[in-house]
Amino acid sequence: MRGGVNLAQTTMFRWGWAITATTVAVTIVLQGDLTHFTWWQLYQFGVYAGLAAAGKHHRFVVTFAVQSLLTMLGVLAMSAFSCGVLVKAHNTWGALYVPLNFAVHYMPLLVVLAAPPSRPPFRPTLQALQGGAVFLAYVTHHNATVVYECRLPYQLAAVGLVPVVLLLVYHPALRVLVWLCHQP
Question: What are the extents of the domains in the chain?
Answer without folding.
Answer: 7-181
